Amino acid sequence: MDLKITTLSERPELAEPLWEMADTWPEFIGNDPIAWSMIGRIVKELPDYVLVATDERGDVAAKAFSVPFALGAEGRGELPDGGWDQVMLWAFADLRHDRKPDTVSAIEISVARDYLGRGVSGRMLAAMRDNARARGFAEVVAPVRPNAKHLEPAALIDTYAQRKRDDGLPADPWLRVHVRAGGTIAKVAHASMTVSGSTAQWRAWTGLPFDTAGPVEVPGALVPVHCEPERGYAVYVEPNVWVRHVL
Question: Mean per-residue pLDDT for 216-226?
Fold first, then answer.
């Protein structure tokens, strides 16, 4: 499989095509306000940290977003329990205040449907590590969204993240890719991403009735969504797993 992986700064003409790539994200994920407001800023303001893979036809086969941030800044020092949302806020706060970054965080690796199951995600992760190393960073961290957790929404993430196969590698496929690449599971980010909306919005996003109080299992969600139909809202708080890659 002949894929060409470059940064967006090297090929700015791919800024529009990368958004047209069909992926497998559930619709509700895009309604996290941090994602909605900031993901596009990575493309415009941090193109050196956007990787795009194109196939022999020039079509986008995969994309990977990352952000540099100052983990060692005052008041930080530890990977945040707020996970994906928090590291995005830190990164753009650091950019605004011209604070020197010391770490790169993965934000997203997405593979086009036609290329799923062909090892492309691992190649994009390797390219992300190489890109960070080339820019002088010693570590990449990743708030990993375990890609088989949605099959067991009731399972506790702390237990799930520690499951291993007989060969000692993580049971979850995406965590396994990270560990094989040299990553180490560091901790769980219990509130990595939050999506709140009215019950009407959740019905539109999922096609489910959202008319019963309590936990609602939603396809693609890693944990149940908490529904309050009498009050007209529902909230999803997604846990992720922090993985550290020392370069």
Answer: 98
Q: What whole-number distance in Å separates Cα of residue 198 and Cα of residue 19?
A: 27
d(CA 160, CA 149): 8
Token pair for residue 52?
């795009």
User: What is the spatial distance between Cα 14 and Cα 53, in angstroms, rounded to a whole number?
Assistant: 10
pLDDT digits (tens, 9 = 90+) for 27-46: 999 999 999 999 999 999 99
Q: Is residue 68 classed exposed, middle or buried when 0-12, 13-18 and 19+ CB atoms within 10 A define those classes?
A: buried
Q: Classify 43 as helix, strand or coil.
A: helix
19: which 2 tokens? 């958004």
Whether 55 shows a pLDDT value over 80: the answer reads: yes
pLDDT of residue 240: 98
Helical residues (DSSP H) of the chain, grouped into ranges:
17-20, 33-45, 83-96, 120-134, 157-161, 173-180, 199-206
Q: Span 102-113, mean pLDDT?
A: 97
Alpha-carbon distance 9 to 50, whole Å? 8
Q: Report the pLDDT value the prediction gives residue 23, as an integer from 0 to 100.
A: 84
Asked if 69 and 96 touch (Cβ cutoff 8 Å), the reply is no
For helices 33-45 and 83-96, the axis angle rounded to 10 degrees is: 40
| Full-model pTM | 0.96
**CA atoms of 243 and 103, how far apart (whole Å):** 13
